[in-house]
Every structure is written in C-alpha cells, then in structure tokens.
Q: What sequence folds into this?
C-alpha cells in the first residue's frame, strides 16, 4: 500500500446503471449469513477520490453516491475531542502550515516509532482545529475544493449519518477507525472510551447499531470487546508486494504497533492464517485486509529483480503487474465466522493491475465474485455501479430486466440486490 503517489490518468466514474438501493445495516452479519448479504460499500474517508477527505462534504457525497457506510478516521485534540483525520499530523490534509498564528505549533513527534515533523492534532484545541480548512492531499486529484471545508468531529459525522438516513430512507452506518491507539494512549488521550462515549450519546453503542469500529492494533480491539457489543474489525496491513507477489513487511507496517511495543514477534500476515483468524475471532467480527492478501500480483516483466515498465508508459506501477490466483483468506475467514472488508479500491489506472484493463469496475467485480462482505472505496459511485453489474451477472432474473440495453419498466428483477 506504500507505492508512492505518482501522476496518472483519472478514470471517469463508470456508468451509473442503478441508483442507490436500500440497505439494512441493522443486523450482525456472520459467517454463512454474511455471504448471502450484498457486499457493503464503505465510503473510504468519505468520497475521498472526489473531495478532500474526512469532511462532512466528502461523507455527504459518499452517501449521495450510494455508500452504505461512511468511514471517519479518528484522532484526538488537545482537549480530548475526537476529530476526523487520517493522521495525527495535519500538515498534508489541512491548510495549517499556511496560518501564521499556528507557526509555533510545528513539532517533531514520534508516531509508531517514526519521527515526523508537522502540526499535530494533540497540540490544538477543538476550537483551534475548527479554524483550519481541509485540502486534497493527493496531487493527482481535484485541488479545486481546497480551503473550503472544515474538520468535523465524530459527533458531527454521526449526526450527518442520522440526518441523511432519514432523508434517504435507508440506514447509513459509520465505520470509525481508531488511529494509532498506542500513540494516543501514551499522550494521555486514549481513543477507545471516547469513541464509545460518543456512540452512546447517539444511542449507537450496541450490537445492532449500524457501526463497525476498526483498528490496525489488536490490544485496543480486545479492550473494546470487553466494553461494547458494537461490531469490531481487525485491519491487516503490510508494507508492499514483492516482484513475485509475496507480501513484504517493514516497520512500521510489519505488525500491529501494540505487538512492537509488547515485544511480540510476527507480522500482520500471521493474523490471516487459520490460527490467526481463530484468534481474531475471539475479539472481533471481521477483518479488513489490504487487497493483496486476497488477490496478489506479480511483475509482468522482471529486470534486475524488479518490475519493469511492461506497458511502456514510462512509469512502473500496478498496470505493469498481473494478478495471481486468489488466496484462501476469504474462505478461511468465513469458516472462522469473520466478515471480510478489504481496502482500498481506487479508480486511478496506475493503481489497477493489467488484468483490469484500466477499468476499476473490473477490479470490484473480481472481489465481489470472491465473496467479500464489503469493501472500502475512494469512489463509492464506481463501487455501487459495479455491485449492480455483479448482481446482474449472478441473478438470471435480474438479467431479464435489461432487454437490448433498456431497463424494463416495472421489472421485478434484482430481487437479490433489493432484498437486503
Ligand atoms: Ca481508515
Ligand atoms: Ca508502466
């Protein structure tokens, strides 16, 4: 997941075949039952492909585009509030470095063993953070919205989900991630009880709430399991994929950071072996694995042990790789009674293996076909479109609804898609 951002062509959102369909996010989904449910589209950081991430505008757009869940990453402010940011360091995703009144807040802090310089949420009060504005952190994406949107609290994200649920007549859930739990504990700003307090305030701290809490660490999920029945998801990271398709590990992306602190050996990969999945099942309801754990890829052309520019576009990226057969991780996770929600699906062509022929819909189809229970999408519109196409492919009744490319009025097909 650490492939450097480089320039690449944007693929326009694919055809909008169907509008959003209702989803019931109100029930636990487990094992075999999970496979009968339609896969959830989780708006990753909102609709991060379209608008600056982790803003109410980005979350609202994700909902408009059909996402079932919106995904706030959570960090703590100096005065203990939870705000939505992917990193504690706000230098890349806000205008903070341009504001002279905050110049003295520039710090070097160590996050998960790595020193970095910038402006950290824990050095700002919520009132101060409210004066910042979000910027698009990914250079190849639209910069036209920079400086327009503010940084929301977790409270405000839930309020948005509830308001939009009422407006749209379907349940929109929240999928908060506790970012760097050990780091926050060491600052005296532990996230876990704060997350539960906010959920409780909105009546969403219970098993059937439309909520998943996710984490790359393990100890904080075990702590949460003792204190809430909300569904929990173990994220599974890695550093990179080697030329032969093997997943590679390097700190700090080698293992959950609480393992590093506790001196526990091993890698993230240990979490998705049958034994690891059984352990995860003792405290979580699902896994959120990086995509290559499910379908990895190899170099098309090797030069000196590295991937070469196979398609001759002057760049070396995913488009110069080809897929390997799927692993057994989805099957094994389902056998263990765990949901599988892989990350992250993105439309840029340079991020798509050659097999997908530059069309992100093809990547979604491959993962839906593999049986995932949901996925994290930067462009939820494409994920929703691909889900409709996939339903057409797997349901003969649904296919009858499309005759010579025209949708038949009043057609009762797509029952499976609408049944949830
Ligand atoms: Ca996240
Ligand atoms: Ca290339």
A:
């Amino acid at each position: 997941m650490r492939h450097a951002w480089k320039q690449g062509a944007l693929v326009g959102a694919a055809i909008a075949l169907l509008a959003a369909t209702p989803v019931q996010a109100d029930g636990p989904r487990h094992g075999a039952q999970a496979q009968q449910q339609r896969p959830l589209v989780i708006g990753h950081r909102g609709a991060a492909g379209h608008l600056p991430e982790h803003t109410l505008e980005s979350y609202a757009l994700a909902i408009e585009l059909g996402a079932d869940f919106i995904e706030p990453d959570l960090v703590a402010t100096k005065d203990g509030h939870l705000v939505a940011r992917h990193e504690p360091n706000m230098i890349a995703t806000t205008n903070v470095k341009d504001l002279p009144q905050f110049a003295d807040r520039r710090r070097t802090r160590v996050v998960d063993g790595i020193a970095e310089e910038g402006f950290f949420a824990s050095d700002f009060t919520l009132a101060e953070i409210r004066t910042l504005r979000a910027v698009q952190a990914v250079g190849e994406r639209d910069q036209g919205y920079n400086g327009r949107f503010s940084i929301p609290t977790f409270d405000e994200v839930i309020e948005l989900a509830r308001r939009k649920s009422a407006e749209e007549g379907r349940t929109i859930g929240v999928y908060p991630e506790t970012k760097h739990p050990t780091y926050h504990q060491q600052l005296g700003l532990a996230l876990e009880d704060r997350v539960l307090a906010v959920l409780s305030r909105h009546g969403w701290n219970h098993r059937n709430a439309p909520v998943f809490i996710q984490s790359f660490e393990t100890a904080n999920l075990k702590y949460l399991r003792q204190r809430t029945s909300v569904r929990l998801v173990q994220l599974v990271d890695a550093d990179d994929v080697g030329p032969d398709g093997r997943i590679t590990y390097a700190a700090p992306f080698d293992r959950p950071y609480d393992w590093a602190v506790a001196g526990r050996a091993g890698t993230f990969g240990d979490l998705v072996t049958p034994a690891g999945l059984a352990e995860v099942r003792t405290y979580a309801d699902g896994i959120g694995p990086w995509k290559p754990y499910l379908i990895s890829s190899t170099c098309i052309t090797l030069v000196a042990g590295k991937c070469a520019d196979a398609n001759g576009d002057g760049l070396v990226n995913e488009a110069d790789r080809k897929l390997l057969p799927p692993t057994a991780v989805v099957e094994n996770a389902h056998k263990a009674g765990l949901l599988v929600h892989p990350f992250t699906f993105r439309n840029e062509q340079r991020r798509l293996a050659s097999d997908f022929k530059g069309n992100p819909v093809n990547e979604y189809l491959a993962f839906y076909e593999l049986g995932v229970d949901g996925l994290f999408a930067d462009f939820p519109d494409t994920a929703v479109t691909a889900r409709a196409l996939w339903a057409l492919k797997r349901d003969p009744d649904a296919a009858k609804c499309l005759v010579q490319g025209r949708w038949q009025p009043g057609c009762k097909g797509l029952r499976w898609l609408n049944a949830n």
Q: What stands out?
A: The two ends are 32 Å apart (CA to CA). Residues 31-419 form a domain with the TIM Barrel fold (CATH 3.20.20.190). DSSP finds 14 helices and 21 strands in the chain. The chain has a mean pLDDT of 90.
